[in-house]
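Handover notes (outgoing to incoming on-call)

Open items:
1. Alanine--tRNA ligase: sequence verified, structure written out, both below. Nothing else pending on this one.
2. Nothing else urgent.
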Amino acid sequence: MTGQQIRETWLNFFKSKGHKIEPSASLIPVSDPTLLWINAGVAPLKKYFDGTEKTDHARITNVQKCIRTNDIDNVGRTARHHTFFEMLGNFSIGDYFKEDAIKYGFEILTSEKWFGFPLDKLYMTYYPDDTLAYETWVSCGVDPSHLIPLEGNFWEIGAGPSGPDTEIFFDRGEAYDKRGKELIEQDLENERFIEIWNIVFSQYNADPSIPRSQYKELPNKNIDTGAGLERFACVLQGTKTNFETDLFYPIILETEKLSHVKYEGQMAYKVIADHIKTLTFAISDGAVLSNEGRGYVLRRVLRRAVKYGRSIGLNEPFLYQLVDTVVEMMKDFYPNLVQTKEIVKKIVKKEEEKFFETISDGEKHLLSSIENNQLSGEAAFKLYDTYGFPIELTLEYAEENHITVDLEGFKQALEEQKMRSRNARTQNEGMKSQEEAYINFKEKSKFVGYNTLEVETKVIKVFPSGIVLEETPFYATMGGQVFDKGTINGLVVTNVTKLPNGQYLHEVEGEFNENDDVLAIVSKDTRNLVSSNHTATHLLHQAIKDTIGSHSHQQGSQVTKDLLRFDVNHFDKITEEDILAIEKIVNNHIKLKETVITKEMNINDAKKLGAQALFSEKYGDVVRVVNINGYSIELCGGTHVTNTSEIEQFAITSVESIGSGIYRFEGVTKNVEPLILNTLKNTLADINELIQKAKRLESQTYKFNEKTLPELIGSYKDILNYRNYLEELKNDVKNFEKEVSLKETQKILENASDFIPKDPKAKMVIKITKSMDMSTLKQLIDVIYDKIKADVLFVVHVDLDKATFIAKSNQNNAGTLIKLAASLTNGSGGGKPTLAQGGTKDLTNLENALLEVEKAL
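Alanine--tRNA ligase structure tokens:
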């Protein structure tokens, strides 16, 4: 069976069992900051499993593309480690459970109609306490000697849904290992028994603070399974490793052509085949290569592949040439790869070229880090972590230069990094605990807020955290749009959230009882502002695609009454010209007064219409489509204006990179000028501070030439104009300071005699109270020192709340005098015997200190 036939067989089987086929989610997690990548079939479905959201389909099946890089060093070394892989899954959300899941598993694996695995080649593990799993496998016809109890067969990550699991292994026979099932029992690395499938029975709410035996049963029990497509292909195609299957081998053959080196199982070919799939799929889904987050992961993946390419003679960019092969292999199941192919090739080639330059820098760092013919583990890790040098590349260079590498030190530094990463994942990847009261509440509640902002209704449920209404005009926070402001019976609504079964929970400043009659009123002004910003967001999204490329996908958004925020991916710099062009496109559509039509329709009809499904989100069969005159067509449940003219005006107020190739746009609508001024408040404060600084320097002699502030035009151009004004003002004030300082210094030096005491005895200690900068003060001291021809001169300059001491001497006592003055005034200071400096902010004992300095002199 080909990889495509395996996918189709899996999906068709579970479709025949009432499962809805879900397309693969994007590799980039949606609204889930706990994950760097989608790394399992269940990851996009977590919200259904923990009960935070209700799905219309309790049975789901999918083929989910995944990325995992925690074992990247094993990729190519073993037969089955990958960074990119596809996980076959079937899921039950509060529907069928253990017995049915096992029976489905048995049927799809052993029936000739489906995969037809020989039963005597299958072995199953189970959790020792899970007698039902054992009995169900036996009832299906599995030989009890093929059932292995293992303590490790329990899935949990922190608090939340957890439960026992059963793993299914395929025995490839003694040709791969003479040992038997003890390989499974003792969890020994081997090539004989391949784990092809894991079925998790999610039935408990895990609580790390109590023993597992005390875990409570989940109100909704779930089934979560994951089977490796690549492992199925290896078994069904009879190959030695996953890499000789049709899911990798075409890439290996193409690499052979580029390298002119025959493939004979070399690790380099396997690494390249795996890594180019990872790069192609990740970049197609909107990821970019950078120095942080998932962008850093991809950069490491690419550099590792390039390193192994060098080992087979590929010493110039080559990975980008393999993208075509990946797309050709995978396009039947992932047709979007065809549209993104050229941009992927461009990004990969650009990054390869950059890395070949980096290799040169890394070589220099390596050579400069050698001490006593050895490279420390810390230096080797820096090469790995900073310069992207795989340790093999470092060892290669070390051998060429006849030096040794502290490999143990490197491994320790690497393990410490992995431990930090694992700890972060352990803390974050778990699902939330199910809220039983919310899950069990199924009474109908209707949202009527698209058509009205005011409704007389009644309270149908009171929770400790809020109330549910029979009908509600309040929009709940979701899809990036904030909840509606307003009142219920005159009491302020402070939050509105969506419950798992679709009802809206209202948090209100007051108490209610069930069956209370209430009047719910949404603030019209707030709703209009939010709707205006939301429709502008849709226009902005399409304008961004039109300007910087269709590869730019939404990575997040937030819509409030005050502003709209929109995140997109982009592999290159977004220029000021791009930003102004995007803003202009949006305003043109506002001026055209285009009709905004919202309509519910079948999801397939929406896709035919060209509607964009944002975030690669999961949608039901019936979706709401927002169509702005055919220019922007998106699936969206938010509130919108009915005509673009209601937006009035649009201005971008900020565009910044927020890391990993993600850019954040912020903008405003309607009366934009005061909103732009609010955005500019920090810039205006800086401008005012500079002007006040210049004013303080002004006198009858010196006047600062203050330029007029730019006039607001209600555009991102205002942001640029004010920034430019600020930069020019900085230069103007700096030049004015120099001008005043230069002339003041000249005037002070010309009148240096005015600072010399008339009393000859006091000449050696001088107190100056005229404000001047340090440069002028030092020049003045030199002039005075020369004029009075003293052996020693001690000067104190008092300015506002501080004093500066400077001593000049040909008697080698300057430092002594400064330390004396400093010690008497809680100050500090020091310097050379001939010239020293100090100071204090405590002026209470200053006069006494000067008398002591005079005595010392």
